[in-house]
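The passage that follows is intended for readers who have already worked through the single-chain material. We present the inputs for a multi-component assembly, then the predicted structure in tokenized form, and finally a short commentary. You are encouraged to pause after the input and sketch how you expect the pieces to fit together before reading on.
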Amino acid sequence: MTSLAPAFSGDIADCPSPDLSFLLDHTSHVLRTRMAAALAEVGMTARMHCVLVKALEEERTQIQIAEIGDMDKTTMVVTVDALEQAGLAERRPSATDRRARIIAVTDAGAEMAKRSQAVVDRVHAEALGSLPEELRPVLLEALTLLARGHLAEPVESPAGARRARQV
Amino acid sequence: MTSLAPAFSGDIADCPSPDLSFLLDHTSHVLRTRMAAALAEVGMTARMHCVLVKALEEERTQIQIAEIGDMDKTTMVVTVDALEQAGLAERRPSATDRRARIIAVTDAGAEMAKRSQAVVDRVHAEALGSLPEELRPVLLEALTLLARGHLAEPVESPAGARRARQV
DNA sequence: TATTGTTATACTCTATAACTATA
DNA sequence: TATAGTTATAGAGTATAACAATA
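Having made your guess, compare it with the prediction:
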């Protein structure tokens, strides 16, 4: 019971109308655990899947993929290490920039991307499929509007900004 | 740019139909940063707010509030410490169980709970208010159905279970 | 000088373990 | 024996700093 939904109305069964924070926190957290469990069955994580897919679309460097997936470049290193160890991707020198590494997906990686995408699609379909049909498009529409509009950008964390390292 | 949305379609502007995982992760993450920033202005965190509200409703022990808010009891200790230091709540011995501590909200705490609840309501109203009026109830309805139904309970994390401590 | 990628590590968060005191 | 609360700390995750190679 990881408390990723740390606040507001906890007991949804009793609650006539839980608030937006609780609803978004709870549903995203649970969906994430379902996704992680489903991807783990094929030996993948959500990050590995994301990198694989973005690397397949076109030739991209680590930094480019990190930006797309909103990861730190150091997190990217760890993820690419995992993909390499699993034989799903390789680092190749860029032809145009000798500092940069192209993430090349192996045949096994391309195969895996298909499987993991099927897993992702299945998990999403199961969640949406549990809703009355008329609610499915409006849920996606409303969330998309929020994600593009009022909830597009995180605001600065008040005390959360990581301090500089002690030297 | 905390990467709490570590996967799937990153660039929402280009994406015709971002997937449910991205939408829920992104919106919940950004709403959380907005809530944290707004509550920080009155010196509160979401957890402190949650504990204060639940302690005000009726006489409750730390464990009871921890269960409602889905927190670990050790996390609860830290939160109550913060509330005590801010003069918003006090630990009082339970009349019926000398092991247990009732979380008693001070006058300042009750005042603060009003203010922080107003902050919470405002942040939610701003988010919902950014949507076309007809989408607001259906968004809440769809999320509530998911939170009570298919996405009610987290599934076990594959490798996530914390290991026993090294002795 | 700025940037890509790497290593090393510091910071935050949260849960486990062990403990005290009660039940 | 089991539970409420506490302390201390381990483990996971992630970002900062410093660095090497290159732009």
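Commentary: Residues 71-72, 74-75, 78, 97-100, 162-165, 167 of chain A lie near DNA strand D (CB under 10 Å from a C1'). The mean pLDDT of chain A is 87. How closely did your sketch match?
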